[in-house]
């Protein structure tokens, strides 16, 4: 089992690093251009690999913690408490995976909803949002019970994301460029999640002695990204023709 877990970890790291690099190509290229669509597709593919392997590793930590991390518990004076902490953190990571998956796929699905949002009501596109609502409530309650700061921060964040996506899906009318705002917000949001994980885990490893300031690595990317999304959304809301190229080549799922 440790070998299988390490294989997942290596795959996860490689895919995550690739996503961090590829994220900037569609962000910096002209919207609707070939490279924008092509590298946006590459980014989505490696992100899906990263999210799948990350969620699977978290599930293994919950289901078989001793087989996956035998060394961690060998030096613990309270094995039961150590297992519970590890499993709670794994629950948090699963919530992050669901949140990032919803953002990533919303960025793709919103393109096909430019003229017709009925496809957004398919079960395959509704289930992720329902899962995000559920995971947000679960980790929110767990965070309150155990005073887990990150859970208490990311639970309402996930809930707000799910509500926003459901509102776009079921609203009677939406703005002219609502689909584009959802597209940008979704992809930028998934990128924020990737960089948050990178800085949080990397920062925690390199700066393990800064105490509570480690939370800044979890929160700062989200703040910067949220500001970027707000700025872009306001620009689109006040611009009748933000792009001259229509996004094409997106398959309905």
Fold and architecture overview:
The protein is an all-alpha fold and 253 residues long. It has helices spanning 2-22, 24-28, 34-63, 65-68, 70-74, 79-112, 123-146, 149-170, 178-206, 215-237. Helix 3 runs antiparallel to helix 6 (79-112) and helix 6 packs antiparallel against helix 9 (178-206). The longest helix has 34 residues, at 79-112. The radius of gyration is 19 Å and the shape is globular. The protein starts with a helix and ends in a 16-residue tail after the last helix. Mean pLDDT is 81; it is low at 240-253.
Keywords:
single chain; about 250 residues; mainly alpha; 10 helices; about 0% strand
Summarize the model shown:
Helix content is 78%, strand content 0%.
Which structural class do you get from the secondary structure elements?
mainly alpha
- CA(first)-CA(last) distance: 34 Å
Main beta sheet: strand number and arrangement?
A: none
Overall pLDDT score: 81
Low-confidence residue ranges: 240-253
What is the ordering of alpha helices and beta strands? HHHHHHHHHH
Count of β-strands: 0
């Amino acid at each position: 089992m440790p070998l299988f877990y390490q294989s997942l970890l290596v795959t996860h790291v490689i895919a995550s690093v690739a996503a961090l690099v590829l994220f900037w190509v569609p962000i910096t290229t002209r919207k609707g251009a070939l490279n924008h669509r092509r590298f946006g597709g590459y980014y989505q593919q490696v992100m899906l690999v990263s999210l799948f392997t990350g969620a699977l590793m978290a599930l293994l930590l919950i289901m078989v913690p001793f087989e996956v991390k035998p060394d961690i518990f060998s030096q613990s004076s309270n094995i039961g408490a150590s297992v519970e902490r590890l499993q709670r953190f794994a629950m948090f990571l699963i919530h992050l995976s669901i949140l990032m998956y919803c953002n990533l796929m919303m960025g793709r699905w919103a393109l096909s909803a430019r003229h017709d949002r009925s496809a957004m009501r398919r079960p395959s596109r509704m289930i992720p949002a329902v899962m995000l609502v559920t995971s947000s409530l679960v980790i929110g309650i767990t965070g309150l019970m155990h005073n887990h700061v990150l859970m208490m921060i990311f639970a309402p964040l996930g809930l707000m994301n799910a509500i926003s996506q459901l509102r776009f899906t079921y609203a009677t009318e939406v703005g002219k460029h609502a689909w584009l705002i959802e597209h940008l917000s979704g992809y930028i949001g998934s990128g924020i999640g990737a960089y948050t994980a990178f800085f949080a885990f990397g920062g925690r490893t390199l700066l393990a002695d800064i105490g509570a300031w480690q939370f800044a690595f979890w929160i700062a990317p989200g703040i910067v990204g949220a500001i970027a999304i707000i700025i872009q959304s306001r620009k689109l809301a006040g611009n009748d023709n933000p792009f001259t190229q229509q996004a094409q080549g997106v398959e309905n799922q």
